[in-house]
Amino acid sequence: MNATDKLLTRIRELQDEMEEEFARRRAAFRYQYRNGRVVFEAEVRRRHREMRVRLLTFLRRTRPLTVITAPVIYSLIVPFVLLDLCVTLYQAICFPVYGIDKVRRADFIRVDRHHLAYLNALQKLNCVYCGYCNGLIGYVQEIAGRTEAYWCPIKHAARIGAHHSYYAQFVDYGDAEGFEAGLATARNRITKSGLSGVAGKEIG
């Protein structure tokens, strides 16, 4: 196991530890996840409703500049929905050709915070919007990452601010001798059969 694989293994272990911590926090805040829905204990829901800031009070506390910029924020829903549609169509059409496993949209876009009883109507709307848009970005990044892993699994020469989960295993920049083997390995990780498909041989 090389240094990169060891780091990736450690990252996965840390992710597992985080999930265990999330489970402990769920128990502390007294809710369960059943059939895709969050269920709080009755007493907890009652306390949450008591802590809700009423909508009119919330609006009175809102800065005028926040109100002015709100339409700009919400206008972005149009390009986000178009992005969602285009990327979903892209993977539906292209991924089967390349043999790449499709990304499950539901694994990234989670809209559940509007069930929290301590949020007022506007806060719930904001949470729905943020949950959708941020989840969509993760969904798009995963599709783009698998695409990059199939066609161009080469690290950049300079450091980048953020990268997808496949990037660490890309071929080093300038490693001409290792490129073909690295390309085959990258395709093997993301395809159903573990082999680069006929289309990959013809086009790649």
Structure characteristics:
204 residues, 2 strands, single chain, 63% helix, 8 helices, globular, two-stranded antiparallel ribbon, mainly alpha, disordered C terminus
Overview of this protein structure:
- By secondary structure, the protein is mainly α.
- It has a domain at 75-203.
- The chain has eight helices and two strands, in the order H-E-E-H-H-H-H-H-H-H.
- It has a two-stranded antiparallel sheet.
- Strand 1 (31-34) and strand 2 form a beta hairpin.
- Helix 5 (77-98) runs parallel beside helix 6 and helix 6 crosses helix 7 (176-190).
- The two termini are 28 Å apart.
- Mean pLDDT is 86; it is low at 195-204.
Point out poorly predicted stretches: 195-204
Largest sheet: 2 strands, antiparallel
Total strands: 2
Q: How do the strands line up in the largest sheet?
A: 1-2
SS strand fraction: under 5%
Radius of gyration: 22 Å
Q: Number of helical runs?
A: 8
How does the overall form come out from the CA principal axes? globular
Q: Ends: how far apart?
A: 28 Å
**Structural class assignment:** mainly alpha
Q: Note the run of SSEs as H and E.
A: HEEHHHHHHH
DSSP helix fraction: 55-70%
What is the average of the pLDDT values? 86
Describe how the helices and strands are arranged.
Layout: H1 3-28, E1 31-34, E2 37-40, H2 42-51, H3 55-61, H4 64-75, H5 77-98, H6 121-151, H7 176-190, H8 198-203
Antiparallel strand pairs: 1-2
Helix pairs in contact: 5-6, 6-7
A few lines on this structure:
This protein is mainly alpha-helical and 204 residues long.
